Amino acid sequence: MLLMLPYCLAKPFIFALDPETAHNLAIVGMRRLGAVAPVARPLPDTPVQVMGIEFPNRIGLAAGLDKNGECIDALAGWGFGFLEVGTVTPRPQPGNPKPRMFRLPPVEGIINRMGFNNQGIDALIANVRRAKFRGILGINIGKNADTPIERAVDDYLIGLDKAYAHASYITVNISSPNTQNLRALQGESELDALLGALKARQTKLVQQHGRQVPLALKIAPDLDDTQITNIADALRRHRIEAVIATNTTLDRNRVAGQQHAEETGGLSGAPLFEASTAVVRKLAAALAGEVPIIAAGGVMDGAKAKAKLAAGAQLVQIYSGLIYRGPELVKDCVTATRS
Q1: Where are the domains of the chain?
Q2: Cα–chain-centroid distance for residue 110?
Q3: Tens of pLDDT along 73-130?
Q4: Tens digit of pLDDT for each residue in 271-320?
Q5: Cβ partners under 8 Å of residue 237, min gap 6
Q6: Is the pTM value of this prediction over 0.85?
Q7: How far is CA 321 from CA 128, 238, 302, in A?
Q8: Would you place residue 1 in the very low, low, confident or very high pLDDT band (cuts 50, 70, 90)?
Q9: Which residues are catalytic?
Q10: Once rounded to an integer, what is the mean pLDDT over residues 319-325?
Q11: What is 2-336's CATH topology?
């Protein structure tokens, strides 16, 4: 019922609920809506070519909202140029103990330590198969929490193999702060080994499926200049098709003193904007146009989306902004970023 109300009216009821409860109820509601509502794209196309794909517009849904691909058809009607589902792991897992999601309304922030809770890649693929949506769909893959970091590549290869036939592009998530040691894969030698294995497998899958599905690497905002340079070099060296900047942050400087600010997990929403945009700007300088950038982090209105493009991004993803601003945020961002 709340999904039928204008978001400004529904928001007080949503925010009265525990954040994860509200999220789960929204997923159930959108899943049911998607089963009966026609797939629509109510906004006019303003096409842009990125990764060899023509996107209807520059604004996409970031991974995390629809982890299991349950709401693809409902979300397709919001006007996004592309959707990204996941993060999904090879095997189902419950994620971290609850509570694990916290709102910081005065600063429009969210802290989560979900831990890749999902039903596993087989369930996600089944949902993708059932969806009517035929637009651009990214599938975001990660590793299971109980897979040793030394064998992380095995999980990513499983994800790549299973997602390949069903995705427009595949995102390799090595930057969530909520899976132990995952960000170690951003290290120079670790990243080199992972990307080398993924590109070798991609080459085989191109031959098997007769098409190339681009790979995007999702990185953290908590990187120094040397790390950003090393990542840029690795992206070029392995011919990775895109980079997503950024995931959530561990930094709490911009939310100091706020209720829940000391909770562990990744911070997203408005407080992430400056740090994530700084990474986009530095990546753009280091990559010099050789690898496209998909910006994510702190986009709460059209002006912020436009600022991501000005920093050097080609596409923009949103998620936390939807929690605070509702579906109208998509139209605002699409309108602001028309080229």
Answers
A1: 2-336
A2: 15
A3: 999 999 999 999 999 999 999 999 999 999 999 999 999 999 999 999 999 999 999 9
A4: 999 999 999 999 999 999 999 999 999 999 999 999 999 999 999 999 99
A5: 192, 195
A6: yes
A7: 25, 33, 11
A8: very low
A9: 176
A10: 97
A11: TIM Barrel (3.20.20)
Which tokens belong to 310? 């000005």
Q: Which residue has the tokens 């990125």?
A: 50
Residue pair 95/114 in contact (Cβ under 8 Å)? The answer is yes
User: Which residue has tokens 């651009």?
Assistant: 136
The first and second tokens of residue 179, run together, are 């899976």
